[in-house]
Amino acid sequence: MQAVPGASGAIPLVPLDMLAALPPAFLIVVAGLLGLLVGSFLNVVIHRLPKMMDHEEANYIAELRGEPLPHPERYNLMVPRSACPHCHHQIAAWENIPVVSYLFLRGRCASCKTPISIRYPLVEAVTAALSALAMWHFGPTVQAVAAIAMLWSLVALFMIDADTQLLPDQITLPLLWLGLLLNLQGWFAPLADAVIGAAAGYLVLWTVNTVYRLVRGHDGMGYGDFKLMGALGAWFGWQSLPPLILLSSIVGAVLGGALLLLQRKGKDTQFPYGPYIVGAGVVYLFFGESIRPLVLPGL
Question: DSSP per residue over 211-244, as a string?
Answer without folding.
Answer: HHHHHHSS-SS-HHHHHHHHHHHHHH-GGGHHHH
